[in-house]
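Dear Dr. V.,

Thank you for agreeing to look over these. As mentioned in my earlier message, I'm a first-year student in the group and I'm still getting used to reading structure tokens, so any feedback on how I've presented them would be very welcome. I ran two proteins. I've put each sequence directly above its structure. The first is here:
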Amino acid sequence: RQLAPWYIGYVLLFNLLVGPVFSADSLTSERERSTLDLLLTTLITPWQMLWGKLLSGLRVSSVLTSFLLWPVFLACLMPVGYWENILTMAGYFLIVALTAVTTAMTALFCSTIFRKSSTSLMCSYLVLATIFLVPIAARVFTQTFAPNSTASDVVSIFEAFSPFAAAFNLPLTLDDSYSNVARIDIRIFFGFILFAIVYNSALLLGMIQL
């Protein structure tokens, strides 16, 4: 039970790896097959085209990711100490859902601006790894070498970009011997929700304009 945040981190890492695969070639494949111009001559609007491509890739990646969430779902149904943490468990599901949307949206955006699927996929991994993992690495570095410096405060702001930091900063109290309440910052969780909404909205508007 004490490994719940770590298991969610594993699910997030899995989505980070598989999410871009199904969306990074959404539009680049159309260019490579020379069918994009034909698609643009139809009555389908850019909005409809992008939503269709997004849902197509997101459907596969979200289903694969959800296969790993069944232990968390079962834990919510069984009285094994999670009933009093039901809001935290709901927060875990929300983080995973927003992460799935973010990985798919980032890959679709890269597919919009690049011409080759391989380039789009590599750029997607680079952007997502920078956003999701660099804040965690910076936090470990500052806690180890400069725990009381101003850099530590700056890093805590960028932690809101990472779903991993958001998952580990949700309160989870399972028994008297285990509690992470004293070392969490719930603001990181709400900051990640705000970041995900703004980030994905900006990508969607940018793709429509392109």
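The second protein is here, in the same arrangement:
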Amino acid sequence: MHESMTRISRRPVWDVVCVATQRDELDAGLTEEIVGAYLLGPLLYLQLFDGREVGLVDIERTVDAFLGAFAN
């Protein structure tokens, strides 16, 4: 069950990242696990551990940080 839920939550994001790596826009060394940790992890932390609703600003900041770390 854990694997199934993980795959369901990461798959749409991973699909977008794969296209970006093929276009040489993102680091080709990215894995699905790294993408999940750096894109989904911070948002899940805010929701689950801080108990707050994730907003558009949170998403934008997380994506910006990810791109800053992994964009070519």
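From my reading of the second output: The chain has a mean pLDDT of 92. DSSP finds three helices and no strands in the chain. Does that match how you would interpret it?

Kind regards,
E.
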